[in-house]
Specification:
alpha/beta; 6-stranded mixed sheet; 5-stranded antiparallel sheet; 14 helices; 11 strands; 45% helix
Length: 394
């Protein structure tokens, strides 16, 4: 009897990470004591043929559907292979969504190849979504990201998915932190990409890029390598190809792990600060008759700067602005000093803030002296109409 190949350690680690990230979602169909022998039986999983589309979803009827966002690159293809294991063992249904950004020659063929690889791994359903990237209002990376997530949102809603898996690794997280540092961003940006936000789950944030490449080799997969990853015109490519290797060389190994650990710590801090800020904003916010928002000056002054700036940002976001810069928020804070100009200070997106001068009322029948007044003078967005601002992520 031929000896079954030993499970690659990276595959076992990846399965454990995915199982932990989908806690509460996977069906518990395998005995706990049998997990070790089940993991060792890799030959059938690694070479499992694609399921017949006519019967693929019949055995999993009633199980939650998990979608893999699959570009065909090493990270997402490794994720598709590992996720497919949970479909083969009856823990959930697993499908894939391939987004064709149509930005490179042959992108349609690349997308179809990725879809074919997902089907060969037994994933079902597998959809290809071709999108139009609108670069008129933002940079190419941000525009592609916006179009990609819109397509993933649409696919998840249409298929009734319980989760969408993204293949970002520890290396991606380290690069994200360095990019945030270069921008001079705040805690939330330095926290990098969250392990979970809504339907989106990143199970591989503790896995190295070399591990996903090894997983692809183990499964006999031929991943696509995005040429833009080597294009020095993109900041992320320079960080990946030059900055991180330089830091490793000058400061010693472990830099990527340290940056990812920093992101996790700051993510916890950012979550706590945002919860406190939301509570303070709810207690201070007053709605004016004319669609303005009022924030009492005394209440704002009583807050520490970390909360005060976040409260001002929440008001601006509610009125339809994009995330205000640190400089804009500091300018708004300066109105509380009651020296010099009473404003307005522009916070972005036609949203401005000014200090209400004595004797002029904003709320009907009530003087509003002692408040900062925020208004949107350029759109139909009013209080309670929140904009969709997707966090920076690749």
């Amino acid at each position: 009897m031929a000896r079954r190949p030993r499970l690659l350690p990276a595959v076992g680690t990846a399965r454990n990470l995915l199982e932990a990230s989908l806690e509460g979602l996977l069906a518990d169909t395998a005995p706990r004591q049998g997990r070790r022998s089940r993991d060792a039986d890799e030959s059938s999983t690694a070479t499992a043929p694609a399921q017949d589309p006519s019967t693929a979803d019949a055995p999993g009827a009633g199980l939650p559907l998990v979608l893999v966002a699959c570009s065909g690159g090493p990270d997402s293809l490794a994720l598709a292979a590992v996720a497919g294991h949970f479909a083969h063992t009856g823990r959930c249904r697993v499908g894939a969504v391939v987004v064709d950004h149509a930005l490179q020659p042959g992108s349609a063929a690349t997308a179809e190849k990725a879809a074919g690889a997902a089907r060969d791994l037994g994933l079902q359903p597998v959809e290809v979504h071709r999108v139009r990237v609108d670069r008129d209002r933002m940079g190419p990376e941000a525009a592609a990201r916006s179009a990609r997530y819109a397509a993933l949102d649409e696919a998840a809603a249409g298929l009734g998915a319980s989760a969408v898996l993204l293949g970002h690794t520890l290396d991606d997280q380290a690069e994200q932190v360095l990019l945030g540092l270069a921008r001079g961003s705040g805690t939330r940006s330095l926290a990098g990409m969250p392990a979970r936000r809504g339907l989106y789950v990143r199970p591989f944030l503790d896995l190295r890029r070399a591990d996903t490449e090894a997983i692809c080799a183990f499964y006999g997969l031929d991943p696509w390598h995005d040429p833009t990853n080597l294009d020095p015109s993109f900041a992320r490519s320079r960080v990946r190809g030059d900055v991180l290797p330089f830091l490793e060389d000058q400061l010693g190994p472990g830099i990527a792990q340290a940056l990812a650990r920093t992101a996790r710590i700051l993510g916890q801090d950012a979550d706590h600060l945002e919860q406190l800020s939301a509570r303070e904003y709810a207690s201070l916010r007053v709605l004016g008759d004319d669609g303005t928002l009022l924030l009492p000056e005394d209440g704002l002054r009583a807050l520490p700067p970390a909360l005060r700036q976040r409260v001002l940002a929440l008001a601006a976001l509610e009125l339809g602005a994009f995330q205000p810069s640190f400089e804009r928020l500091r300018a708004a804070e300066s109105l509380l000093d009651r020296r010099g100009s009473a404003g307005p200070v522009q916070l972005g997106g036609k949203v401005s803030v000014h200090r209400q001068v004595r004797g002029r009322a904003v709320l009907r029948g009530e003087p509003s002296y002692g408040n900062l007044v925020l208004s949107n003078n350029g759109s139909n967005n009013g209080p309670g109409v929140k904009q969709s601002h997707r966090p920076t992520q690749e």
